[in-house]
Amino acid sequence: MTATISGPAEAAPAEAAPAETGPAVAGDSARAVRAGRREWVGLAVLALPTLLVSLDVFVLVLALPKLAVSLHADGTAQLWIMDTYGFMVAGFMVTMGTLGDRIGRRRLLLIGAAAFGGASVLAAFSTSAGMLIAARAALGIAGATLGPSTLSLIGTMFENPRQRAEAIGIWAGCFTVGAIVGPMVGGFMLEHFWWGSVFLLGVPAMVLLLVIGPKLLPEYRDETAGRLDLPSVALSLAAILPVVYGVKELARDGVHLTAVLALGAGLVIGFVFVKRQRALADPLIDFGLFAAKAFRTTLGGMLLFSMLGGTTMLFVAQFFQLAQHLSPVGAALGLLPGMAGSTVSFLAAPVLARRVRPGALIAGGVALAAAGMAILALVEPAAGPVWPALGFAVTSLGVGPMVALGTDLVVGSVPVRKAGAAASLAQTVNEFGYSFGLATVGTLGNAVARSYGLPAGLHVAAGLAAVAFAVLVWFVARHLRSIRPLAA
Q: Residue 370 has what pLDDT?
């Protein structure tokens, strides 16, 4: 294997083969070079796009009513304004992760940052709904470069397993910080400026990344990788986009012909895509990675978490407003303990993994999340807002080990030259899990809510999540038990 690493990081990471023992021992990482001040400052630079992508999603929800009036956007246009970004991120994530391994992860990150900044300006000054939809599509394509690039660069910069897990915990926590800060910052901007101002929030940070990134971030690319297989790129887009569209339509409008046809077409094309990848010498996705139990178990657990956790969060938010009759601000305050708890959990999980086996820690976190879901499955409106806030907080505390350590396991259990592809798979799983959860559990919960009231819908969604997480505890404990605590 020949790889090129240039820039601030002088030492090349050791190549590792996928192993059931996981990242704690991959590549003899106990002797890996410890990161210094430059790498930690570089992590702060990498955290900027992560934080802002999360913040961008939440501020748009607040800005939608004002921009709809200003741009004369009807209901269909509003849906496309909201959904186009997610479609493009999901569709291009796998391609961008693999592309970064080929052309350079830092180079792709900087290209994506420049494109994200430019598209943000275009969105801010849009004069029509169509122009804003196009800008959101460009934002989504640019956003698809940021996640895999930042995560795979973390794997390059932090060879030491403890430090890498801590860095990924901080990186993952930025998503939650964006969710907490987004509504507050967005509300302030919309109160004092025009709706387009919310899209400009990320521009200064992207400019800073473009200026500082080349000086602090190492470059990495796999010199042995073949050319990007364009038919595979086309097949991946033709598979992912109809599936995401189909599940979103099922969640929004129930079963109808367009959604079913889109979902069916995506699945058929996906089958063709998988066959092509297995036949290629240098595939877009190496399905051989799934031979490692740590890899496939962790990805499956992350899929289940995003599918059930994200859907239940929406029911909890609705429960606060419709069943508890709280204002939007009051509902946000009810969710705040959970958001803060998940941030603490992201940061604490890598520290605890120094003494506790990651598999046991992840299983314990899932068990805690199951307990929180059980509380939500039993809560009644007469109990007041404390119990749903507690249930959501307990659930959120259990998220950290799965997301932080799980992401570390996915990235760390593959050869370093495939880190970009692994990172893109981890993020695609989260994106798809959320959409699929809305289409399945969300649709079921809404149907129950229409017939028996919103509390019943929450009870069904949370109850299903509690049972699924209880099963996942056993699964994780069994298949990740061989992974040792993080080496020093």
A: 94
Handedness of CA 426, 427, 430, 431 (dihedral sign): negative
Residue 4 phi, psi (nearest 5): -110, 125
Q: What is the pTM of this model?
A: 0.73
Answer for the pair 376, 392: CB distance below 8 angstroms, yes or no: yes
Q: What is the pLDDT of residue 378?
A: 93
**Strand ranges (DSSP E) for 328-378?**
none
Six-digit token pair at 337? 């303990």
In angstroms, the CA 468 to CA 381 distance is 25
Residue range 23-72, pLDDT digits in tens: 443 344 445 677 677 888 888 888 877 777 767 666 676 677 778 888 88
> Going along 219-299, which residue ranges are E strands?
219-222
Q: According to the model, what pLDDT value does residue 226 have?
A: 65
Nearest to 326 by CA among 337, 318, 315: 318
- CA–CA dist 241, 328 (Å, integer): 32
Taking the C-alpha atoms of 311, 313, 317 and 319 in order, what is their torsion angle to the nearest 10 degrees? 80
Q: What are phi and psi of 278, to 5 degrees?
A: -70, -25
Burial-class residue 142 by CB neighbours within 10 Å (0-12, 13-18, 19+): buried
**Has residue 303 got a pLDDT over 60?**
yes
